[in-house]
């Protein structure tokens, strides 16, 4: 492959200024929101499905690896270039292609900002439920590639649950339309959900038809604090076992709480607060008092120090701000944050947090855990110093032990971040050789020359 | 392949009496709920995953085609034997393997009766939402194979939306465990949803981990009649465009209404009633009056003759009984019922019904339509006489025109029945050659010797 022959071909297919290889552009696109970087050979900005198809066809001819990119907000290196690769950024493909309020469906291009979808349909009393933390800037194509979740998944589910149909370009440069424009459909194998979560390794998604829901008209938010994590986990279990599914149920462990307090938030907590739960309920206004009462009752119990309802919008915003600040706050606490995203059944959450506590003590590591407790989905952050070889070795041991604990507890290695390049070495802990062999064969069907996002998702052979 | 060598091998793997080749057993298992039949060479009744694995291994060695069977209640010949095949009936695999009320998950064997799942968890205030019409006797394995829907899909979704993980045996005799035991998980390609709806052509599902929901504590049912189908469709649109998603929204066209009346039901309808809607809402008791009011307002409009709320359980049961009697009633109306199951966006439902009316007139056919209007999913029944060659030819023309109309209206050929053997000739109308070529390649990965449910789902090459 010679870049000097590919670039003119690509410039002929796209406008010249949308095939960039200047140092500044390459530097910007050399990383996503994961530690590490790699300078790509070029960055491409297609405007349309047809241009994506042209890119893949040319790339295939020249065996040029393509790294698809939404906003670059992923945590597992899914959009990180590999040596000799071209980044395909979807940021110029933001069109709303079709929208029907009555059918509650919308078709958007892959570069559409996720939050823009809900904003677009809000006037009709609709919304697009999945809202990963990066919602205000992440793009739907990235969400589809990683099957993004978010705090509201506990009630509303994840990206996969809202995808009706896709338009995509496979690694052979062929157009693949899959799925339907209707709320039901069972014709053929479910290629739609095969592409969702495939991290850009099977096809480049260019358009998606998504399902919308009626926007809940009211909500309420409660904050509860506990003397220890075990008692907070017991409360999570009680909340999830009662009748009203909360629209969010977030947990902060003592170290997350300390991080939040260090930033000046949550200063009003009672003495001895070592774990915090945030619970949101939503629905028709008439249902809220009942829901709040049921949640309050479930939150009360051993070790409960305080249960507070946020009564105005500002108080709710403060609570969420504290929760959302955790990701940047923990990032600032050490030179490197190893950000895991494990899930266990809600009934095993206490055991998971005990295991994490044990790992932190045994390996002398600073581990901060918080996340979507209603899904049993914890963000476990190892705060480390890459210069400290000994600590890094302990962190690697700790990670291995964390994953073992998660799998022993009937859990999974990732709830919403995905595998990308960071976690691929650990995939064989969870998936059997039979499953991996099928997945590799599927990869070869869609992308026989392995040009689509190489080095991601599937472990090295 | 010689049956006389296979049967002893299978009898050694299973108990002898669970490998049947007596004429009576073969006759019983020669058909499902689809016109036509074919005598299999044997019927197998495995008791466990390991026995299914033994069956597939032996079958593969001898190139014996295997036809998996739940209750045999499918409408597209999915469980119909092909010449020389063995039926694998899952009826002896009904165990509940695992259940956690707090995690709202249940793991069941494939032969578990679908309604038995909800019955099992009801005491904990939970239920398993998908409820195809055959709910009281169909088996979860069949539901998974076909991605079954049902009247409540409009609010609760279909089988696919409730599957967390699967255990299965591929065509190579290998065990494949896919998915998770948690409410979230994104590790690897989504093989779980690839198997759901694959109609037993990729693997035999032996166990499934399913998601449960809190049981709604109250519901209400309304019946509305209209002077014509177009006005009923307009009402469907209005219902689906307002804030409260109904838990069911069923439509009967004039011919379905006549069939119901001929059975002695719905005798109290006002003069001139030519289309009927049944709407159910559910949720917390406190929400019901608001929901009923909103639905009533949406149902009212041009051509609305009467809107009635069923105020007691008996009245509701009567309404549902009338709706559920439609399938057997139409079957009794002619020697052959060709039962289609098309879907269009709700906004195009009126056009679909006009197209059906046009086809019936043009081809002089008796077509009865009813079904899940809230999903735009109509059961279109051609009532014909197989002896009448001319009528059968007109029916084939009519079917072709129906499918063309559906696809022109942005629809899909099947919403919940699947493809099986009956519809496979029509699949290329909807799926592109690229999509079919990928699907065939996937089939070869899972089942290289094509022993799993041959002649189903994928069109002939």
From TrEMBL, chains A, B:
It comes from the Bacteria. Belongs to the FAD-binding oxidoreductase/transferase type 4 family. InterPro entries: FAD-bd_oxidored_4_C, FAD-bd_PCMH, FAD-bd_PCMH-like_sf, FAD-bd_PCMH_sub2, FAD-linked_Oxase-like_C, FAD-linked_OxidoTrans_Type4, Oxid_FAD_bind_N, Vanillyl_alc_oxidase_C-sub2. This is FAD-binding protein. It comes from Acidithiobacillus ferrooxidans (Thiobacillus ferrooxidans). GO terms for molecular function: FAD binding; oxidoreductase activity. Keywords: FAD, Flavoprotein, Oxidoreductase. SUPFAM superfamilies: FAD-binding/transporter-associated domain-like, FAD-linked oxidases, C-terminal domain. Gene3D superfamilies: 3.30.465.10, 3.30.70.2740, Vanillyl-alcohol Oxidase, Chain A, domain 4 (1.10.45.10). Its cofactor is FAD. Pfam families: FAD-oxidase_C (PF02913), FAD_binding_4 (PF01565).
